[in-house]
Amino acid sequence: MKLYIFETSTIPHKIKLVTTSRIFEFYKSLKSLPDLDACFIRVHKSFVVNKYHIVSLDLKKNNIKMSNGHICRISNTYRNILKNIIKT
């Protein structure tokens, strides 16, 4: 099973984990997730993504396209950090 995205849920303090086969929901702080593994990077207050599944980066629209087709927003706060990570 591949892990693509951690995303905030509409339910407060709940997170959605998007995988190849399912979407899991659980209670946790999105802020604590990037510490789990270096492959996960914060790109928005609502998204933590697996950098190995980023297909494209659209800086004009501030979007990331993931290998599963999911589109995630990029905030200005994380934009430059993301550009540096993608270059390496």
TrEMBL record:
Keywords annotated in UniProt: Activator, Cytoplasm, Two-component regulatory system
Domain HTH LytTR-type: 1-88
Gene3D superfamilies per UniProt: LytTr DNA-binding domain
Molecular function per GO: DNA binding; phosphorelay response regulator activity
Domain of life the protein comes from: Bacteria
Protein name: Response regulator
Native species: Clostridioides difficile (Peptoclostridium difficile)
